Amino acid sequence: MNEITRINHLGLRVKNLDTSRAFYEKLGFVFIKGPVGPEPVAIMEHPSGVNINFILNADPGCSSNILMDVDVKHTGYTHVALEVTSAESALRSVKALGIEITGEVEFEGAKFFFIRDPDRNVIEFHQPAAS
């Protein structure tokens, strides 16, 4: 389909808007508006253009990510990968924020590392291999 031009937004089901908002603000996202709509949804956007819609109806008692934290491997989206200009610089920045690094990988020249948000959603910071 040639009509697709880019990803418009990422939808994340979260338990608490204030907690999620504070976490993503640390990463440079800006609160746009919300809650709005029937779900309801709150919207944040990074200056790079990455847009996140928080779907505000998660079970407050849930403490795991069914796609990543259980032995059975369910189908579904497992993480978002945010491209960075420097994985080393981004890693220093994330560590300075006090956010736990859950994995680091270097593969065929690409460098990436992973964190979890307050709802255990996985975020990858990805520096592509030099071409």
Automatic annotation (TrEMBL):
GO terms for biological process, alphabetical: L-methylmalonyl-CoA metabolic process
Gene Ontology molecular function terms on file: lyase activity; metal ion binding; methylmalonyl-CoA epimerase activity
InterPro entries: Glyas_Bleomycin-R_OHBP_Dase, Glyas_Fos-R_dOase_dom, MMCE/EMCE_epimerase, VOC_core
Keywords in alphabetical order: Lyase, Metal-binding
Domain VOC: 6-128
Protein name: Lactoylglutathione lyase
Superkingdom of origin organism: Bacteria
